[in-house]
Design a protein that fits this description.
The structure holds 2 protein chains of 2 kinds. Chain A is of the alpha/beta class. Chain A has 2 domains: 2-238, 3-Layer(aba) Sandwich (Rossmann fold); 266-343, CBS-domain (Roll). Chain A is 36% helix and 24% strand. Chain A contains 13 helices and 15 strands. A 6-stranded mixed sheet of chain A has the order 6-7-8-3-9-10, with helices on both faces. The longest helix of chain A is centred in the middle third of the chain and has 18 residues, at 168-185. Chain A is globular, with a radius of gyration of 23 Å. The termini of chain B are far apart. Chain B has helices at 2-13, 15-18, 24-56, 60-72, 75-86, 91-114, 118-126, 131-161, 164-167, 174-182, 186-214. Chain B has a single domain (2-214), classed as MetI-like (MetI-like fold), CATH 1.10.3720.10. In chain B, helix 1 packs across helix 11 and helix 5 packs across helix 6 (91-114). Chain B is elongated and about 70 Å long. The chains are: A alpha/beta, B mainly alpha. Chain A: It is an enzyme of class 7 (translocase). Chain A: Keywords: ATP-binding, Nucleotide-binding, Transport. Chain A: Belongs to the ABC transporter superfamily. Chain A: GO terms for molecular function: ABC-type quaternary ammonium compound transporting activity; ATP binding; ATP hydrolysis activity.
C-alpha cells in the first residue's frame, strides 16, 4: 500500500533525517516505526502525506507517487493524528471531526451526521460533540483526533505518537480501542512511537530506526523479539524481550485440567461457577481468572502469584473451564520462543 | 480649586453647551467620526499587513520595529508637516491619526498570529487545508482576540489624539481645548479634556466587554 524506494531526506541545515530508506507497508496492516528521538521516524511518517518533502527517492501510496499529487488533496485522502491531538480550539468537537469532509465539499449537514457517527465509533458520548476541545480530558481529545482522521474514511491512517501525552492507564485503553477499531476497519496504519511495548502490542510489523535515519530491522514483532538483527535492536527491545514475546502468544492452545481437590488450597467458586479466590484453612488469596485470548505473559504472571502455581481458566461469561499448571505454561512459553526463532 | 470644579461641572451639564453647531453633541459626533474613519483606514492597512507577516513568518522585523516607530512618532509634527506640504484640509489629520494607529494594529495582529499553537497549524495543514484555508479558518479566528485588542488600543489612542483636528482649525472635542487655550478659558480647556478622557474610557470598557462576550468560550 505504501512503498518507500531509496528515500533520502536531508534538511537544509545538513542533518540527514532519513537515510536510503526502502520499506513496504502492507495494506490493512499496522506498521510501527520505533526508535529514539531524532532517528527519523516522524520525518518518515510526514513524508507520506508530504508534510515533509523527500530529498530523493520515491514514496508511493496505492501505487501513486505522492510528489506527483496535489499536496492538499493527498492529505485529505490520508488520515493524520498527531501528539496532543492538535484539535482546533475555536471549533466544537463535532466541527473538528467534520473538517476533512467539509474540505472535500460535503454539505454541512452530511458532514455533521458523519461526525456524530464517528463520535460513537471512537467511544465518546453524543453530548461531547457540542463541547470545545479544552473542556475534554487528554484521552478524550485523542479520541476526537482519531475520529477527525477517520472522518472521510481514508484507506491510510498516519499516527504520530498519538498516545504519547496521556497517562499509562488511558494509554492502554486507547491502544485497546485502536486494535478494536482496526479489526473493524482494516486501515493501512503507520504508527510512530518510542515505546517498545506499544509497538509490540499494536504492530503487524515493526521498523526500528537508528539515529541518522537508518532502518535497522523491519519484521513482525515475534520475529523481532526472537531474532534481533544486531545488538542495537536487542538493546532497544530491552533485557526482558523474552517476556515481551510471551505477550504476543495467547493461552488458547495450552492444555487445562480439572481443578484440584483435597490439597492445602482449594479454588472457591460462586453460585454461577465463577472463581472467587484460593482458600486454605486459614488464608484467602484473590484469583484473577484468565480467558483463552489472554496472553502467556499474563498467565505466567498469574501462575507466579497463585499459591498452587495453577491459573484458573474461564470462558467469556467468567465460568470456570479448568486450571492450567505453571509447568504447562512454561512449556508453551519455551515452544513459543523456539517457534519464533525457527519459523520467523 | 473648588470653584474651578464647580464651574467645570456647570459647563459639562449646561444645556446650552450641548446643542448647536459648537455644542458638545455635535463636537462629539465629529470627534467620533474622525476617530472611527482613521481607525478604519488604519485597519485596512494594518490588518492585511499583520496577517501576511504572521502567516508567512516573513518581515517579522518590520512588525516589531513598527511598534517602536509608532511610539516615537511625533503626531503634531506629522500634522504640521503634511499641512505644510499639502495645504489646509483634513488630510494631515487623517495621515497623522492613521500613522498613529497602524503600528498597534500590525503588532497585535502579528502577535496574535504567532501565538497560534504550531501543533494546531500543523494539524490544519495535515488535514489538507490550503494556505488561505489555514489562514482564514484557523489562524485568523484564533488570533482574533489579540487582533481585537490591537484595534481597541488603536481606537483609544486615536480618540485621545483626534483633538489635533482642532489644531488645524477643524472640529471635534479638541475645539474646546484649543479655543479655551486661546481664550484663556481654563474651564473650557478642562471640559474638553475631560470629555475626551471619558469618551476614551467608555469606548475602552465597552469594547473590552464586547471582547469578553465574544470570546467567552476561549480558555486563554
Amino acid at each position: 500500500m505504501i512503498q518507500f524506494d531509496a528515500v533520502h531526506k536531508r534538511f537544509p541545515n545538513g542533518t540527514t533525517a532519513v537515510h536510503d530508506l526502502s520499506l513496504d507497508m502492507p495494506e490493512g496492516g499496522v506498521t510501527v516505526l520505533v526508535g529514539s528521538s531524532g532517528c527519523g521516524k516522524t520525518t518518515t511518517l510526514r513524508m507520506i502525506n508530504r508534510m515533509v518533502e523527500p530529498t530523493s527517492g520515491t514514496i508511493r501510496v496505492g501505487g501513486r507517487d505522492v510528489t506527483r499529487q496535489d499536496a492538499a488533496e493527498l492529505r485529505r485522502s490520508i488520515g493524520y493524528v498527531i501528539q496532543q491531538a492538535g484539535l482546533f480550539p475555536h471549533r466544537t468537537v463535532l466541527d473538528n471531526i467534520a473538517t476533512v469532509p467539509l474540505l472535500r465539499g460535503w454539505s454541512r449537514r452530511r458532514a455533521r451526521t458523519r461526525a456524530a457517527e464517528l463520535l460513537e465509533t471512537v467511544g465518546l458520548a453524543a453530548d461531547v460533540g457540542k463541547r470545545y476541545p479544552h473542556q475534554l480530558s487528554g484521552g478524550q481529545q485523542q479520541r476526537v483526533g482519531v475520529a477527525r482522521a477517520l472522518a472521510a474514511d481514508p484507506p491510510v491512517l498516519l499516527m504520530d505518537e498519538p498516545f504519547g501525552a496521556v497517562d499509562p492507564v488511558v494509554r492502554t485503553q486507547l491502544q485497546d480501542e485502536l486494535l478494536r477499531l482496526q479489526k473493524e476497519l482494516s486501515k493501512t496504519i503507520v504508527f510512530v512511537t518510542h515505546d517498545v511495548d506499544e509497538a509490540v502490542r499494536l504492530g503487524d510489523q515493526i521498523a526500528i530506526f537508528r539515529t541518522g535515519g537508518h532502518l535497522v530491522q523491519c519484521a513482525p514483532p515475534a520475529e523481532l523479539l526472537a531474532r534481533p538483527a544486531d545488538d542495537f535492536v536487542a538493546d532497544f527491545l530491552g533485557a526482558e524481550r523474552g517476556l515481551k514475546l510471551l505477550s504476543l502468544r495467547t493461552l488458547a492452545d495450552v492444555p487445562q485440567g480439572p481443578a484440584p481437590e483435597g490439597g492445602d488450597w482449594s479454588l472457591v467458586l460462586d453460585a454461577a461457577n465463577r472463581p472467587v479466590h484460593w482458600a486454605s484453612k486459614d488464608a484467602e488469596i484473590p484469583v484473577r481468572p484468565l480467558k483463552d485470548d489472554d496472553s502467556l505473559l499474563a498467565a505466567l504472571n498469574e501462575s507466579l502469584a497463585s499459591p498452587t502455581g495453577l491459573i484458573a481458566r474461564v470462558d467469556s461469561e467468567g465460568v470456570l473451564t479448568g486450571v492450567t499448571s505453571r509447568d504447562d505454561i512454561h512449556e508453551r512459553a519455551g515452544q513459543a520462543h523456539t517457534e519464533a526463532r525457527v519459523t520467523a | 480649586m473648588y470653584e474651578l470644579f464647580k464651574n467645570l461641572g456647570a459647563w459639562l451639564v449646561g444645556s446650552e453647551q450641548w446643542t448647536g453647531p459648537d455644542g458638545i453633541a455635535h463636537r462629539l459626533a465629529e470627534h467620533l467620526q474622525y476617530s472611527l474613519l482613521a481607525t478604519l483606514i488604519a485597519a485596512a492597512i494594518g490588518l492585511p499587513l499583520g496577517l501576511l507577516i504572521g502567516h508567512t513568518g516573513k518581515g517579522a522585523f518590520l512588525a516589531i520595529n513598527l511598534a517602536s516607530f509608532g511610539r516615537a512618532l511625533p503626531t503634531v509634527g506629522l500634522v504640521v508637516l503634511v499641512f505644510l506640504a499639502g495645504g489646509l484640509s483634513m488630510l494631515p489629520v487623517y495621515v497623522a491619526l492613521v500613522a498613529l494607529a497602524v503600528p498597534a494594529i500590525v503588532t497585535n495582529t502579528y502577535a496574535g498570529m504567532t501565538a497560534v499553537d504550531p501543533d494546531v497549524k500543523d494539524a490544519a495543514r495535515g488535514q489538507g487545508m490550503r494556505g488561505h484555508q489555514v489562514l482564514l479558518q484557523v489562524e485568523l479566528p484564533l488570533a482574533l482576540p489579540l487582533i481585537m485588542t490591537g484595534l481597541r488600543l488603536a481606537l483609544i489612542q486615536v480618540v485621545a489624539t483626534a483633538t489635533i483636528a482642532a489644531y488645524v482649525s477643524f472640529g471635534g472635542l479638541g475645539r474646546y481645548v484649543f479655543d479655551g487655550l486661546a481664550q484663556r478659558d481654563l474651564v473650557q480647556v478642562l471640559g474638553g479634556a475631560v470629555l475626551v478622557a471619558v469618551v476614551a474610557v467608555v469606548l475602552d470598557l465597552a469594547l473590552s466587554g464586547l471582547q469578553r462576550f465574544l470570546f467567552r468560550h476561549r480558555t486563554a
